[in-house]
Specification:
This protein is an all-beta fold. The protein contains no helices and 11 strands. Strands 2, 4, 5, 6, 9, 10 and 11 form a 7-stranded mixed beta sheet that branches. Strands 1-3-8-7 form a 4-stranded antiparallel beta sheet, with no helix packed on it. Strand 5 and strand 6 form a beta hairpin.
Length: 120
């Protein structure tokens, strides 16, 4: 089993910045893809950004140039630096990881979510 602990959400004014963190713990051998997704009220969950174990990043068009995803493989952690925030970025942000356990089994795990609210 793996546990994901997210932090860094909160309330910020438009134009401001926040940094989300997500740390995985458990019987982890390695983590392949790590990512952030978000879900606004009344909308489906959507991809924000993903990053491979090698560091290749992929972003939703809506956040390109404003958000940066990074990871620390030694800490099994992934981060999302969010700059120039807009009210439409308001959502619950979820961490997602693709884990290879010491047992050699794999699973895809979601964090509990952290609220990001951007005011006008």
């Amino acid at each position: 089993q793996v546990q994901l602990v997210e932090s860094g959400g909160g309330l910020v004014q438009a134009g401001g910045s926040l940094r989300l963190s997500c740390a995985a713990s458990g019987s982890i051998l390695s983590i392949n893809a790590m990512g952030w997704y978000r879900q606004a009220p009344g909308k489906q969950r959507e991809l924000v950004a993903t990053i491979t174990e090698g560091g290749a990043a992929n972003y939703a068009d809506s956040v390109k140039g404003r958000f940066t995803i990074a990871r620390d493989n030694a800490k099994n952690a992934v981060y999302l630096q969010m700059n120039s925030l807009k009210p439409e970025d308001t959502a619950v942000y979820y961490c997602n990881v693709d884990v290879l356990y010491i047992s050699r089994s794999r699973s895809n795990v979601w964090g509990q979510g952290t609220q990001v609210t951007v005011s006008t």
